[in-house]
What does this fold into?
Amino acid sequence: MKYLVRDTIFAIGDDYWIEDEHGRPAFLVDGKALRLRDTLEIKDPDGRVLITLREKLFGLRDAMTIERDGETLAAIRRKRLSLLRNHYRVALIEGTELDVSGRILDREFAVEYEGELLAHISRRWLTLRDTYGVDVVREDADAALLIAVAVCVIRMAEKERDGG
It folds into this structure.
């Protein structure tokens, strides 16, 4: 299933719908939750909070956490940086790790678990400006979590690029 995500998601103080590939509302991003440090909620169409994204500062290493039901679900940190590709590690609380790598600032990257593709993030198959797609490859994957991972790593890469 493909989802359409507006690229300026953190810059907007309003609510925003993430739509599925058929144009149906799939997740509501609650922009009212923005605080001194970045906080964002992803809700289902009935308004239930599915995921909360929070920026954390660990010394010099920037990180974000993903929470569900008030409990930390995952922490995202930059793994390594090369000239062309960003690489992030998503450490899920139960011990699983997801790898995120690709050209994050270009919105061309993948989320994988032990080499298996879970989601592909791309602008290539979209004509809408300032929008990227999250293609959740596995039917049993947690779409809200994968969208949250994409939003987090893009936010972190942009902050690194902008120097803070």
Observations:
- The first helix runs from residue 143 to 161.
- The chain has a mean pLDDT of 82.
